[in-house]
Write a structure and sequence with these properties.
Number of helices: 14
Shape: globular
Helix content: 40-55%
Structural class: mainly alpha
Order of helices and strands: HHHHHHHHEEEHHHHHH
Radius of gyration: 24 Å
Largest sheet: 3 strands, antiparallel
Strand order of the largest sheet: 1-2-3
Oligomer: single chain
Length: about 290
């Protein structure tokens, strides 16, 4: 299975995740997956759903790993999409910070390193996995772009480098002189870990007092939403975010409140009656 994943050049995180899921599956039955079949797979899916009570997103990872193992490595002639079904994932919308809340949150991040990296997530719309792996050579001040190498889906892309972010990065460089990673971890030859940034994010949330949930990915959502509300077209936002499908980007249309609320309701465009009724007294509760 490892060789099959390597041949297909699956991302390292994907390989690790698939192996972990198959190991758990084998441990559950205390048998090699090669000796297990569809009945055991179904029993395991019921176990994950009813006993472990995993979220649909977590179950989908297990399903993807099982499908790969039995279709690719074990070469079972099963219609795996039908016989190893994936749960329907609820369509939820992210809770987005306002511009004022983003500023308030970033001002509450205690250390310069964490404040700078979280500012990058918002200013350039990067995933935290992309931000932690930035290097000084990725900053192109002549073209005012940041180069993101091997982001999700193993794709390179360029994103904007705002003058304000450039000044922030230059200030960070002047203090830390980081190499080879722009944001080194405890060991200089390793980048800062995602978990370290997430811990700093939780501390800053408690400090700033914002009641909305805030993660590094919340800043990416805010980046996309604020661009859309500012008039940037969806195709440009798709390229900046590195989305494969425009449909993924289009969900921000449902949360860009300035765009939605600026649209006039057809009710307001109805002709006024010749003798309008006096307006009712507003109720106390809204």
């Amino acid at each position: 299975m490892i060789e099959d994943m390597q041949i297909r050049n699956l991302a390292r995180n994907t390989q690790d995740s698939y192996l972990q899921q198959i190991a758990r599956f084998a441990h559950h039955f205390r048998q090699s997956p090669e000796s297990l079949g569809l009945e055991e797979i179904r029993t395991y899916q019921v176990y994950l759903t009813t006993e472990r009570k995993l979220a649909p997103g977590s179950i989908m990872i297990a399903v993807a790993a099982l499908r790969f193992l039995y279709k690719v490595t074990l070469r079972r002639a099963w219609p795996v999409t039908e016989l190893i079904p994936a749960p329907k994932k609820p369509q939820t919308l992210p809770i987005v910070l306002s511009r004022v809340e983003v500023q308030r949150f970033l001002e509450s991040v205690p250390t310069r390193k964490h404040r700078t990296i979280l500012s990058v997530c918002y200013a350039a719309g990067l995933r935290i996995s992309e931000a932690v792996r930035l290097q000084p050579a990725h900053i192109d001040s002549a073209r005012m772009v940041l180069r993101v190498e091997q982001g999700k889906g193993q794709k390179d892309r360029y994103v904007m480098l705002s003058p304000r972010l450039l000044a922030l990065l230059r200030a960070w460089w002047k203090v830390a002189k980081p190499r080879p990673w722009l944001f080194p971890g405890d060991r200089a030859d390793q980048p800062i870990s995602r978990s370290a940034v997430e811990v700093a994010c939780r501390q800053a949330q408690r400090q700033c007092g914002i009641r909305k949930p805030i993660t590094p990915h919340s800043l990416r959502h805010a980046f996309a939403t604020h661009l859309l509300e500012g008039g940037t077209d969806l195709r440009t936002i798709q390229l900046l975010l590195g989305h494969r499908s425009l449909a993924t980007t289009s969900r921000y249309l449902r949360i860009a409140t300035l765009t939605v609320c600026a649209t006039a309701s057809p009710f307001d465009l109805l002709p006024h009656p010749s003798a309008p009724e006096p307006p009712p007294t507003p109720p106390a509760y809204f």
